[in-house]
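Newbie here. two chains, one complex. Structure please?
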Amino acid sequence: MAATTQQFGIMAEFETPADVMHAAEQVRDAGYRRWDVYSPYPIHGMDDAMGLKNSKVGYIAFGGGITGFFSGMLMIWWMNSFDYPIVIGGKPMFSPFGAFPPSYELTILLGAFGSLFGMLFLNRLPKWYHPLLKHPRFKGASHDKYYIVIECTDPRYTEKETRALLEKTGSKHIEMVED
Amino acid sequence: MSDSAIPAAIKVQAPPIELEREALVENQRSIGWISDRVAAIVEGKAPLWWWAAFIPSVTALGMLGFLLFYQITVGVGVWGNQHPVMWGWDIINFVWWIGIGHAGTLISAILFLLRQKWRTAVNRAAEAMTIFAVMCAGIYPGLHVGRVWFDWYLFPIPNSNIIWPQFRSPLMWDVFAVSTYFTVSVLFWYMGLIPDLAVMRDRAKTKIRKFFYGLFSLGWTGANRHWSNYEKAYLILAGLSTPLVLSVHSIVSLDFAVSQLPGWHTTIFPPYFVAGAVFSGFGMVLTLLIPLRSMCKLEDIITIRHIDLMCKVTLATGTIVGYAYIMELFIAWYGGNPYERYAFLNRIAGPYAWGYWIMMCCNVIVPQLFWIKWCRTNLIFVFIMSILVNVGMWFERFVIIVISLHREFLPGNWGYFSPTWVDVCTYLGTFGLFFTMFLLFLKFVPMIAISEVKGVTPQADPHHPLGGAKGGHH
């Protein structure tokens, strides 16, 4: 029904990590915001080249770890010392030392959940539909090619100027990607 | 030494040739080659050796299923466990399997924090090994309770008299340690797999493959904004797994050390168990990877240098284990407790002395051969040594459990333990489970961390000439 095809963005292909990194620096300096670099592995130094801030995953993982530790301590205190206390081997009803190992494990467990699911949440994954994944040439992004994609929704985007910028960065192959 | 004498193009001087490290991927393979090579193992038809290994493994797995059914319906009496040896092969094999798992986490977490880039070639397979070894281990505590329908007593759920499990027992700590270990190992493994499943999705030709690799890769695109969060999350998971792996075998050792039994009641147990676990785990990694690297044609990715380095880790941990054995003997003598002294004399010269000496040969003498470079780089030799390591580590648990239990304080409590055919066949059956899972892993999932290996090649470094860096820049 929707006969007109919307454009998702403009894609530029690069052959080496150094090329894509210098190109990313230029796109950053031109002030674009809705754009990304796509590569088969994380490129060392690309966060600076793109002007990205430090990832926030750490806060989520830290929150998970804290929750795990205190819920472990609280659970053991509540079960063995409050809800149904039983004397076993003359030991105290609750001791932070005896309760420590399970709480320690729960710290790690919930911290790990926080880091994996926090990463997925910040990346808005899972997302099984993406315009780039339909594009036949984009398969190189998981193989041995590097791409910069500037989205049409970027406030600075104009087809002519953006294309000119990407051409200036030295990309050998530039094309539009449909949404 | 004027600066102008050096032409601009070579201002960044390469390290002297003797300091240049050997390449992690040999023969200057390109980045594309890495995904082609690794994906080919999954994409091609299963080779003959795969079926030759898979069919006996599935048969052994079937045997395991039958024996578990037999043991559950008849009772733990089918095992050799008899008074006074109430922990027999069940707990030996539990500790043995869980120890094997430790190398996977060590490679994926501790070596990551230590920036040991060579780990990328072996971490995926080692992590898979961890998960499957913990699965094998998990069978035993669940079954040795006898009435498996009461296994839910292990969980923090009130029993039928609304009494809670009591957390003063190390056995409860163990439940939390092992279940956390399994869960976090799976998370870590899966997280590493996401970009590689995206590689498989982009290469997939059939509808089924496209669907399943697409589903499990969660729509990964390789965007740098994603990589940024991903790398941070990976670092945190490595940071969390490091104290985890050290705690798991420490807590397993507390199952013994918190009791009063001579031979168990020692403070050296936690570090000694952790070192032994890593030692046996590296033994198993070597046992698995030496044949695999040639059968899957991965010689350029898992190089002789990798084998050499893993032998060095085996040597280091084996030496710690040897030190712990000698320290145990020293403290038994120096501590002056007659029961403790007897327990160790009984190990050395008692009815099970053969088990003690097998342990000493395999765990103390064998790893010392790895001081010699030839021993670390001759593949057949390393393969045989790696099996001996795990024989030795099995006997270590046998020595700790059976020899300590069979003669305790009163001679009225003395006995001799022999396993039954059910013990032996259940143990063989766990190998069936382990190898079935491992072979399925080889068949469906990239066994090398493709994106991580790509990341450690010079072509991937934007500041390296092979990565396209122009001379003089940076």
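Moderator note: Residues 63 and 75 of chain A are 18 Å apart (CA to CA). Chain A has a mean pLDDT of 91. Thread marked as resolved.
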